[in-house]
Amino acid sequence: MIETTPSLIVFLIPLAYSPGPGNLFFAAAGARFGLGATLPALAGYHVATWVVTLAAGLGLAAAAGAAPGLFTALRWAGVAYVLWLALGFLLAGAGPEGQGGDARPAGFGSGALLLLLNPKAYVIIALMFSQFLPVGQEAGHGAAVLWITTVFTLNNLVAFTVWSLAGDRLAAHFRDTGSARRLNTFFGVLLAGVAFWLAAI
Known about the structure:
mainly alpha; 8 helices
C-alpha cells in the first residue's frame, strides 16, 4: 500500500477540494465564526469519516448494497440537512453572532452528522475502495483498509481546514454590517444550490 499511496492522494485531491456539502459548509462556518470556532465540527466530521470509511472497507458497503432503498433515504436526508444549514445562513444577522446573538458554531456532533448525511462522501468511499483495495490478498485486507481509511481521512482534514481558513480570511474583508449580511446570504444560497444538486443526481 505504501507504493500506491501517491496515486491514492492524486486520486483524492480533486475530490476533496472540489465544492460539495462538506467543504462548502466549512467554508461558510469559517466565514461566519472563524477557523478556531469551526475546529470542533471539523473534528466531528473527520472522526465520523474515519469510522464510516473503515466500516465500509470492511464490508458494510456490501451489506448496504443489498438494500438500495437505504442509499435513497440517505440522499434525501442529506438534502434536507444541507437545506436546513442553508436556511441558517440565509436567516443569519449581519455579523458572526447571527440575529439576536443566538447563533452558535456547529459542534462535534453536528460535524459528525454532516458526514453521515453526505451522499457525496459515500460515493467517493465506494469508488476509492474499488480502485485501491488490493484484490486477492485477503491476508492483508484489514491492514490495507486501515491504511486507505487513514490516508483518505487525513487528506480530507487538510482540504476542509483549507476551506475553513479560506472562509475565515474572506470574512475578514466583510466586517461591516451590509457586507457581512451579503456574505451570509452568499453562503446560504451556495449551500442551497448544493442541496438542489444532491436532489437532482
